[in-house]
Amino acid sequence: MQVQFGRYTDALKTDLQRQQWSEAEKHFAAGDYLPAYLAFFEYLRDADADNVEFEAADGRVDFRLYQGSKRLVGYADADKVEFEGGVATMEKPSVAVMRKLLEINYALSYSRFALNGDRICIRFDAPVAGGQPRKLYYALREAAINADYYDDPLVHEFSALKPVDESKVRQLDPAELAAKMEFLPRWIAETLQEAATLHPDKQAGAISWMYLCLVYRIDYLIAPQGELMNDLRKQIELYHAQDGKSFPEKNYQIKLAFERIAGIGEGMARDLYAVTSTFATTQNTGVEGFGTTLADVFNGYNVWKNPEQPAAGLACLEYAAAQAFHGCNLPKPVADLLHLFMQILHPDYFAALGFAERYRTESGELDQEAITMRVDAIVLVGHEALPALTFRSGMLRFGSMLDFAQSFMTEAQAMVAELVK
Fold first, then answer.
1. How confident is the model over 138-146, as a mean pLDDT?
2. pTM of the predicted model, to two decimals?
3. Could you read off the pLDDT of 247-281 as tens digits, one per residue?
4. Residue 136: which CATH number?
């Protein structure tokens, strides 16, 4: 069973792909457009994800690429570049819909929402200069991400619209679906119960860490799509919005959102499926961004750590890993270490998914030998991609989960310091 964790990352380009990018730029500068486009799409194509399809004939390249629930289709030749992706259908004209699309268009730099018959699509067309690799990359990325982002909210907001499905969606294995249906509401119930033991005003910061940790945990471990994914994004936006609301107010709104999500029941299955993507939805802040997150995390942890009430302290430390998957586009060895951390924190979930690795003893305590061996193996293999990679497994502490999580993130901070030198 192939389980999809988190969102697609394009930080794992191979040396061959990076070479194709250089070839694309070289050919385009020389006016050899067909070889330039072929090299460009080889750069984008992820063989494992099967996210890009293209073929050349009669002096042009026809291509299709996939992003979540959407597909972009287009062509490029010596004269122009053109592509579009369906977003929704509009069975009868709606002024409100057109006004909304116009508002969205003002925020776009390359593409635009348009009508093609009764079909709302996102489009891009430009003379051949628009096919320069860097411009074409950002045009495709903008169109793909926005088509995938706006389809569900638009259909949900306007009754005149109907969904368009042109994706490469994979339905989940029954065991994976069952695990996600079980643990998503369980994690919500556990977090709300733990947060209810804290004072909503005096300990609002601790509650915020717990709620945001849960948002990012669900985003990475459950990886929902559709409306559920958009609902999680709204909670992140709500928390960071400069709207004058206090943190207790924001916490209350996020709590209501969690209760609403948990109340969906069996209906949440419609947003649990695997997708094919071409672009990461976040900017590549990499290990530097992870380092910034860790600094914030330890500030919060030092305030809210309490061995007698470990939930808030653990939430701070887990947030570091879960948020990094959402916002940092990490290199593989670093991502593998943080994935291990999540697996150690949530052994029951990984067991329900069918993972054979165990990092707890039969009595439920941390298995020091298994954890240390896995950390060392990740670092050994990771040296090929990141020669400066270090993670001192001997410094990990195993007395309690809080001790372990703090020592793991302390070593992660030291690792980042070495990588960014």
1. 94
2. 0.90
3. 999 999 999 999 999 999 899 999 999 888 999 88
4. 3.30.1460.10
Q: What is the residue type of 143?
A: A
Is the pLDDT at 213 greater than 90? The verdict is yes
User: Torsions phi, psi of 11, nearest 5?
Assistant: -85, 0
Beta bridge partners of 65: 52, 72
Gap between the Cα atoms of 142 and 140, Å rounded: 6
Is residue 230 pLDDT above 80, yes or no? yes
Q: Which amino acid is at 66?
A: Y
Q: List the domain range (segments joined by +) for residue 412.
A: 174-419
Same domain, 334 and 287: yes
Q: What is the 3-state secondary structure (H, E, C) of 6-49?
A: CCCCCCCCCHHHHHHHHHHHHHHHCCCHHHHHHHHHHHHCCCCC
Compute how many other C-beta atoms are within 10 angstroms of the C-beta atom of residue 306.
12
Q: What is the DSSP string of 105-169?
A: HHT-SS-EEEEETTEEEEEEEEEGGGGSHHHHHHHHHHHHHHHHHHHHHHHHH-TTEEE------
N- to C-terminal Cα separation, the chain = 39
User: How many domains, in total, are found in the chain?
Assistant: 2
Last residue of a domain, one of 142, 163, 184: 163
Tokens 């169109």 belong to residue: 143
Among 195, 170, 164, smallest CA distance to 91 is for 164
- Is residue 272 classed as helix, strand or coil in its secondary structure? coil
Look at residues 43, 57, 346, 330 and name the one whose alpha carbon lies nearest to residue 213: 346
pLDDT of residue 10: 74
Asked if residue 86 lies in contact with residue 120, where contact means CB atoms within 8 angstroms, the answer is yes
**Percent of the chain scoring above 90 in pLDDT:** 67
Concatenate the DSSP letters of all residues of 216-236 into one string. HHIIIII---HHHHHHHHHHH
Token pair 């122009």 is found at: 80
Same structural domain, 299 and 237: yes
* pLDDT at residue 340 greater than cutoff 90: yes
Please tell me the distance from the alpha carbon of residue 65 to that of residue 71, in angstroms, as a whole number: 6
Q: Hey, what are 172's tokens? A: 């989940």
74 plus 158 within the same structural domain:
yes
Residues 262 and 317 placed together within one structural domain of the fold: yes
